[in-house]
Amino acid sequence: MRPAPDDDIRAADYVLGLMAPREAARFELDLRHNPDLAQRVQGWRERLAAMRGEAEPTPHAQMRQRIEDGMMGETEPRASPRPSKPRAVLPGRPAIAAIAFGCGLLCGAILVWFATM
What we know:
By secondary structure, the protein is mostly helical. It has five helices and no strands.
C-alpha cells in the first residue's frame, strides 16, 4: 500500500503545531492506526530536534494567531509580549512647523528680491 502523497505534509504540520485542534484530533486517530504515518511523525520530530541546536526557533504559534486574527477580521490587536516604547511628544509641533514655513518664505522672498535687483 502506497502512502498518501500528503501524509508527509500532514505529519510536518502536526509536529510543527500548525493544525487546528479538530484536525489534530483526527490526525491522532489516524496516527494510532497507521504505523507509516507514526514513522513519518517521528522522522519530523528527529529532524526538528537536530535543527533546534543550530537555529533559534521561530515564534510560529504567535504568528499563526496573528494571521488567524487578521483573517477573522479582529480589529483590536492582542497584547504584545514586549511593551512598545512611548513616542516622544513635542507639545509645540504645530508652532515649530509654522515658524519653519515662515522662515522658508522669507528666505525665498529675499532670494527673489536680490535676483531682480
